[in-house]
Structure formats: C-alpha cells, structure tokens
Amino acid sequence: VALPEVAPGERADLRLKVSETYTAAPVDVPVTVIRGVTAGPAAFVTGALHGDELNGVAVVHDLLYEVDLHDLAGTLVLVPVVNVLGVTARSRYLPDRRDLNRHFPGNPNGSAAARYADAVFRTVVEPCDFGIDLHTATVRRANAVQVRGDFRADARLARLARASGLPFVVQARRRRGSLRWAAQRRGIACLVFEGGEPLRFERSVVAMVLDGVLNVLAAAGMLPGRAARPPDHQVVCPGSRWLRAEVGGILDTKVRLGQHVTAGDELWSTINVFGRERNSVSAPTDGWVIGMTTLPMVQPGDPVLHLGLPAD
Ligand SMILES: [Zn+2]
User: What is the pLDDT of residue 233?
Assistant: First the structure.
C-alpha cells in the first residue's frame, strides 16, 4: 500500500473517507502526512481511536507543531482523531455501540465498524514501519503514563518502548481485533501509550506522552537532531493485575497513581453508609499503581487498582 503522494519536504492535510451519514454526507478522518527532506522510516501516531480518550488528540496536535520538516527523516502519518463519530458523541464507541478497536484490520465488505477499520488500517497503518496508538484510561478510571506492548515476541518493540522514557513499560497481551494486534500481525511494530483520564486534556499527561513519542521517533532515527535521553526512572512490568472490591461501599483510597507498594501495604478501605470502616484491603504483592478507579463508590467485583507487577 502506498502512502498518499506527498513530496519530500512537504506536508499534506487529507480527509480520509471512512463512511457516510444517514444524510449521505461523508464521514472523514483527518490525516496529516509529513514527509521529511531526508529518507527514513514511516510511522503513524493515532489519537482518539476510543472517542472519549482525548489526551492523544492534544499530543498529535502538539506533534504537528513540534516536528520540523527539515529535521525529520522519513514520513509521519498523524491522525489526531481516529474515531470521529465517537468524539462527536463523547463516547468510546461507534454509534452502533461497537468498539472500533475490536475490528482491525477490518473488512471492506463487513459491518460499519469493519469498513471504518479497513479504511484506517489500509491508509494509515499498512504503509508504515511502526506506530504509536494513544489511549487514556476508560471512563471513571485514570492511568499512570505508561507504554504497553507485547514485548516477549518482539525485541525491536521492547527497545522502542524503553526508549520512550515513559515511567512504566507494561507487558500486555494483544487483544484480538485491536489496531495494535492487527499491526503486529503484519509485522508493523505498534506501541500503545496510555495516560490519564477520558474526556479531559490533562496538560501534564500530554507533555509526558509527547516527550515519549518524540523519544521513540528519535530512537527510530527519524529525528536525528534529538539526543537520546535515558529515562531518570523507568519500571518494566512483565505483567499486571486488577485488584477488585470485595464489599460494596464508599471507597477510601490510600495510595496514589504511580506509587510503589509493598506486599501488605494498605491500599484502600471501604466505609459503609453509617460511616463505619468495613473492609481494609492490603497489597497481595509488591507492585506499582498503574491505574485506578476515580469513582469513590464500589460494589463487589468492581476494579479498584491496576497493579503493575515487578520482575521476579
Ligand atoms: Zn482506549
């Protein structure tokens, strides 16, 4: 698959038609292709594949200003908003409640979601050598800034993840139908960056993620002027697990996002409606708090904390 024709040293804003509305108006995904003066790899950076996950939109916009054509080696394919229908509805999903990130690589003759995914995959993902898909936590949750990927299978991917300089590198199995899964199956290395909460622009998160993207592009040789900066502090987690509430009630969380915990540390307690503490939960293992609920009320089984696990 060929990238849209953009000459060296030029950039182009394109509208990729992915569907049509009921009134037969085109549904377009905005795509910016930036081709550096020097030859090099091609990389995509995608935001808002889940329509309520907005921090990535700000990251891609910052990237549009940050990248100087004369410094760039290779081609960047930048998509601030993949799921334009979800963003319009302030929803993670497409209007038919399908999760676009379960329909890659898509199918030109399939469901609306499969056709949408197919157009994005062929135009944005397939022409690239690698890419970064930007996400946040899902609704009523927050994530520490982290990079996820299936590193066991791909040493190059692990190297790029480490080079991001992000504080957490978390091994995550590929979920069938995700953009990352479909890209990796075609031999296109794909990292997922996670950070913050949905439906917000969190400037501190955006700044960290932007820096991570630029570090990866530098490590791939696309920004020769940018010095590789080893991270001050980076934790590699070979796995992670969700800790769930055992009793219903009002949640009193004792730890912060990003914090290291030791087995036995108190993580949260649950207070009943009479104001009495009912249940105190301790860390079953050492780890780092890489995600947590932002809703201060829980029922049994609700996920409370996502713990990144240490190497053993
Ligand atoms: Zn997401």
Answer: 86
C-alpha distances (whole Å) from 83 to each of 64, 105, 282 are 19, 15, 39
Q: Identity (one letter) of the amino acid at 131?
A: G
Within 129-235, residue ranges assigned H as helices are 155-163, 179-185, 203-219
Distances (CA, A) of 312 to 11, 164, 213, 243: 47, 23, 29, 19
| Interval between CA 138 and ligand 1 midpoint (Å) | 6
Q: What is the pTM of this model?
A: 0.96
> Which residue in this structure is represented by tokens 């790029």?
160
Q: Determine the distance separating the centroid of ligand 1 and the alpha carbon of 56, expressed in angstroms.
A: 10
Beta bridge partners of 78: 32, 45
Residue pLDDT, tens place only, 77-123: 999 999 999 999 999 999 999 999 999 999 999 999 999 999 999 99
Instruction: State the first-to-last Cα distance of the chain, in angstroms, to the nearest integer.
Output: 43
> Which pLDDT value is given to residue 277?
84
pLDDT in tens, 120-176: 999 999 999 999 999 999 999 999 999 999 999 789 999 999 999 999 999 998 899
Ligand 1 centroid–CA 192 distance in Å is: 9
